[in-house]
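Researcher: Go.
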Amino acid sequence: MRWQHPTRGMLLPGAFLPHLNDRSLSTRLGAALVDQAARFLAEGPSQHTWVSLNVSADQLGDSEFADRVLSAIGRHHLSPQRLVVELTEASLVAPNTRIRHELTELRNAGVPILLDDFGTGVSPLSYLRDLPVSGVKLDMSFVAGIPEDPAGARVSRALGALARELGLATIAEGIETEAQAEFLAQCGWRYGQGWLFGVAQHAQAIIDHGTPVVSSLIDPRPYDAATPLDFGATEPTP
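Model: Structure:
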């Protein structure tokens, strides 16, 4: 998400999202992004393209988010696997029954659910146990120093092994070098995302230039850990 501010120019998410305290406005903004993402996928160059949407606990708790996503999928005639929902650990300190219900409804309809910033939250293991999670995204803070940083390398390897043991899809974010991509692939991280594969760009640029994206979809339910690696995932910006 970007904001073309009338006086400050183009603002990145970190410059304005933390100050978005109006829950109603936040919900409306999230609804608009769902529709933009679905429209991008409908116009996109490949049926294997998927877009991840970061979703807050407030959005999930409004009792309408799942219906909104499924309505957009139906309206644009999309496969449910092409619109992926990402949850940030920090926003899910205490997931309530409403949130679990919304996520379960989405996952049962075929929408993959990813746990973002994996490894940085207060209780990631309980989320993997209690929520209908399809996969995890390794936080870029663990990726930044590898393969030179031995501690980061061990954490990345251990978290990948844990996710695979649970049969979850694995995505490593913040990849900037070939060495990082190769190391993470050897550790079992199936998908990669980061500047090595492509920078953030406007959705229309991706459509116009046929920017290559990941060539396989995420199974909303746990997959076989023997599935071959498939690096090169990007996250188009609606």
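Model: The chain has a mean pLDDT of 83.
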